[in-house]
Amino acid sequence: MDGNAPFSDAIRLAPIPEDFRPPRLEVYKGVIDPREHVQGFEAAVRYRQPDKATRCHLLANTLKGAAFSWFIKLPRGHISSYEHLKWELIACFIGRTRMVVSDMVLANIKQGERESLRNYTNRFFAAAAEAEDVELAVAMHDFRRGLNVGDLSKSLQLAKSPSYPELVARASQFMLLEDVESFPTSAPGVKQVVACITDFDVRRVLLDSGSAVDILFESSFLQMGLKEANLLCVGTTLLGFYSERVQPLGFITLPVSFGDENGHAMSMVNFAVIRAKSGYNAILGRTTLNSFGMVIFTPHLCAKFPTSSGGVTIRGDTRQATHCFQIAAQLVVDQMDPRETQSIIPQEGVISVALGGENSSKIINISSYLNDKQQTEVIALLSEYIDVFAWSPEDVTCMDRAVCEHHLNVSQAVSPIVQKKRVMAGERQDAIREEINKLLGAGYIREV
């Protein structure tokens, strides 16, 4: 189907300038007020200054969904100008115009008896965003009046005249507080994450899909009445505990089961028993989680897995999880490597001596801890071999060019390009000129 068929021949056959680059335009699906879309479209294309025919094609390209279906159903050659297309579009979708919200609508918005503060706040401010010519003070008054009696309403009553940002900030604080208080510590009728290891109900078990091994900590191992003689010693080192290498005490295979009233599942797990501090009693890695077919929902602190009698859901305890996290965080801080601060020892004192006379530029430093006789002997020795030292670039002769040359990986067939002159401060120019003169005098560089 030809998407340009509704245009007249004058528009359809009009060429689009080759150098014309269309701006980024919002699409229109016939959902919102068409006048808003047309106003936004005209503002976007105004600085490109397209002709009328190009505007027709651009506006037609923004139509999607119901709006595009309406456009392609127009009779062939029906649209004769941009103004014609614009008003046809507005006339067809004018029914999608949003209802203007007045201050009376805001005054009638009330918080439901069991409605959360977050839901009421979202409803009110969404309606306030649609309102026209409503003073901010009136909207704030309507918001406070629509609140149920609670902590936020009492807090706003104590505040004499909070500003709009203060009102929003205070409402956000009470919404977060309400979210925390409403989050259930445990779902009624559903067991906590309790793993039955051998014959013991073990709590504080971490389900870690990022762990390659299953861990049983030594403290839990001993509380189960197990002995180190039951361990299978294998020369394996684990990496990942506080960035350290941990040598397991050994490995032991134990039955682990999960279940609730909907079902039950058991699997034999090969635990690595380690001696380390932790907020958890055991860690079940991805191998065991996969054997159960377990899917973890971290935001909800729960996990699900299938059984022959139905799906089983196990949930964690938010307080226990927070407590374990605090212990783990404290362990990381405690096990940080405290570097011993080494005091800075000052270097020994030195004396500057000019070789070849007081006005000589050949300056050396000798230790101030030498006695007078030693200083005299050192100065005499250095003066005797003064020609051994390189006091300037000219003194460094017979140097291999490979040491001081830099090879540029450029094609010699390409003509050189004059770089833009860099303007530098006077001090920098003097320093550059001095270094260049040194290299020229030493013969390291030459003008080309």
Automatic annotation (TrEMBL):
Lineage at the top is: Eukaryota, Viridiplantae, Streptophyta, Embryophyta, Tracheophyta
Please name the source species: Apostasia shenzhenica
Instruction: Please name the InterPro entries in this protein's record.
Output: Peptidase_aspartic_dom_sf (IPR021109), Retrotrans_gag_dom (IPR005162)
Q: Which Gene3D superfamilies match?
A: Acid Proteases, HIV Type 1 Reverse Transcriptase, subunit A, domain 1
| Residue span, Retrotransposon gag domain | 59-148
Pfam families given for it?
A: Retrotrans_gag (PF03732)
- Name of the protein this chain belongs to: Retrotransposon gag domain-containing protein
